[in-house]
Amino acid sequence: MSKQRQHNHSVRIIAGKHRGRKIPVLDRPGLRPSPDRVRETTFNWLQFDLPGAHVLDAFAGSGAMGLESLSRGAASAVFVDKDAENITQINELLQSWHESHARAQTADVLTLAQPRTPYDVIFIDPPFADNLHQQALNQFSHPAWLKPHGMIYIELPERPDSLDLPQGFNWHRKQRAGSLYFGLIKRTDNADD
């Protein structure tokens, strides 16, 4: 007997080929999808970087960030989350939306082997209570994970200066929405920038 999944609400894809489609949000502790306003601002910032990009949704949750990326033309997306039900739901959406160049896996993203090729955009939004922002940033800023011109999105419950940015990285964009802080971190030590 399969137990009914509990959804407390859903979020919508803002723009692109899947615009208006709903993403159900499971009722799980610590799962809080980025508010619409935060996603809208973030994807406005990324609009010219997403077409053809390879994206990692590192603490996927509902998958909203990676799914929005696919809607806006990302070439591929990998979703990773420790919660198997979240991953099952993302896989169901990928199948019904015919997104064959995306995959979702149940795992602790911080223990995964390095990818074969680095990503263009990595979304970091772990459950705030887990306090994994610094560890995740340190790991995913490594060249094995992030391309030289790639960007890391991060969402925080505290001021951005609470993070120690890895050497050679700076805030590309950052903003506050209520008690949330969010922004894009980019490598600044490229000779041709």
Explain this structure to me?
This protein has a single domain, classed as Vaccinia Virus protein VP39 (Rossmann fold), CATH 3.40.50. Strand 6, helix 4 and strand 7 (146-156) form a beta-alpha-beta unit. The protein has four helices and nine strands. The chain has 193 residues and is α/β, with parallel strands linked by helices.
Which secondary structure elements does this structure contain, and how are they paired or packed?
Layout: E1 7-12, E2 22-26, H1 36-46, E3 54-57, H2 64-71, E4 76-81, H3 84-96, E5 102-106, E6 119-124, H4 133-140, E7 146-156, E8 169-177, E9 180-187
Parallel strand pairs: 3-4, 3-6, 4-5, 6-7
Antiparallel strand pairs: 1-2, 7-9, 8-9
DSSP summary, beta strand count:
9
Evaluate the radius of gyration: 16 Å
According to CATH, the fold-level topology is: Rossmann fold
How is the quaternary structure best described? single chain
Span of the ends, CA to CA: 57 Å
Provide a concise account of the structure shown.
The protein has 193 residues and is an alpha/beta fold. The protein has four helices and nine strands; from the N terminus they run ββαβαβαββαβββ.
Question: Any key phrases for this structure?
Answer:
193 residues, seven-stranded mixed sheet, alpha/beta, single chain, Rossmann fold, two-stranded antiparallel ribbon
